[in-house]
Structures are given as C-alpha cells and as structure tokens.
Amino acid sequence: MIVTIDGPAGAGKSSISRRLADQLGFAFLDTGAMYRAIALKGLQAGINWGDAEQLVAYAREATIDLSGAKVFLNGEDVSHEIRSQQVTQHTRYAANNVGVREELVRLQREFAVGKDVVTEGRDQGTVVFPNAECKIFLTATPEERARRRVTDLAARGETVSFEEILQQQTRRDEEDSQRDVGPLKKAEDAQELLTDKMTEDEVLHALIEIVRGCQ
Ligand code: C5P
User: Fold this and answer.
1) What's the 37 CA to ligand 1 centre distance in angstroms?
2) Atom 20, ligand 1: residue with shortest CA distance
3) Do residues 121 and 9 lie in contact, with contact meaning Cβ atoms separated by under 8 Å?
4) Which residue has the least CA distance to atom 4 on ligand 1?
5) SS3 sequence, 115-133?
C-alpha cells in the first residue's frame, strides 16, 4: 500500500509522516530530504547555481540513503545539515531543475517497489504515485506554518524573525505551486487535513483514521 502525504512547507509533514509510518509498520520516504541533499551537495562543491547540468550530474552520481531515521549523502550523515536555513534557501535550484526531478522521481519509485510506504513531499500523489491507494493533503494556514518554522529553527539555535520566515515561506509556496514540473498541488482524489489548532498527536490520530478508511 502507498500512502502519499503532500502539502506546503512547514505544515509539519515530515515528523508526523514518519510517526505515521512507524505506527503502521510502513517504510518512510522523506522526498524533501532528497532535494535538500542535492542542494547541500551543490553548496559543498561550491557549484555555480546557473549550471543546471552540473546539478543533474550530482543527482545522478549521489547515493542518498533514507532507509533509517537518518539521511546519508554519499555515506556522510547530513540529517542535521540539510535542515539549515542555507540549504533551505538553495533547495529551489534542485526542485526547479527538470533533470534533477526526473532522477529523484525515479529513485522514489524504486524505493517503493515491493514495500508498504508512507511517502511525503509535494508531488507524491499527483506525479510520482498517481495510483496510490491513499492520498492525503496536509496543510495549515501560512501564519501557523511560519510560527512552527520559527520554533523549529530556535530549537536548532538559529534565530530568525517571524516576518522573515513568513516572507521566505510565501516565496517558497509560490515557487512550489508554479513550477512546471512536479508543482505542489492537491491531487483530486486526496483527502485534505488542515492542522491549525491540532496537536501532533491529534494529527496522527486523524491520519490513522484516514488510512484505515482507505484500506
Ligand atoms: O518538505 P521540505 O521542506 O523538506 O522540502 C524542501 C523543498 O524541496 C521544498 O521547498 C520543495 O521545493 C522541494 N520539494 C519538491 N518536491 C518534493 C519534496 C520537496 O520539490 N516531492
């Protein structure tokens, strides 16, 4: 069974989707981490961001291991680094690159072969797994999402103002939904869940109910 969870930045998808996968005993795929890892590779290599082909080459050569709780890029644990502000701001180069998307979509489908999977991202229910048995669109209002991101960054020791985060988030939302390939979009057959005012546990329960309804 494939459960797709798509939605905008900061809707709290990553942590909740991982918990859902654990509860169900399914494998978990964090596709945002893959785009982040390619952006990190570009930063590490000091890439010229105008060189789209070079980024595709990095995506083809990269070994990204997401099978455990951590993210490994070419054997190095990058779980913490890929969540930094710097990586977040450069991930658009990977996400908007058609060749990088092709390669990562291929890896995502390969990951799911023969497995029960919860997969989380922007285009999972629309492009990557259009035939998924269970599709969820998880969202929250922009202000709520920005508040959560400020709290997450503070926990990492990064202090950024609410206004700045909201501005960056609005830009990411626009880019995510206007992209020619793999844009952020609710699949027609996805069930939407608005998580404002819900605790993480409440969201998890609601998701389990939705998945039960799909079985
Ligand atoms: O979900 P997360 O914030 O980690 O995603 C990082 C970036 O990767 C997003 O801003 C989005 O542009 C991109 N992304 C994507 N397609 C996916 C998952 C993430 O383009 N399936």
Assistant:
1) 11
2) 95
3) no
4) 32
5) CCEEEEECCHHHHHCCCCC
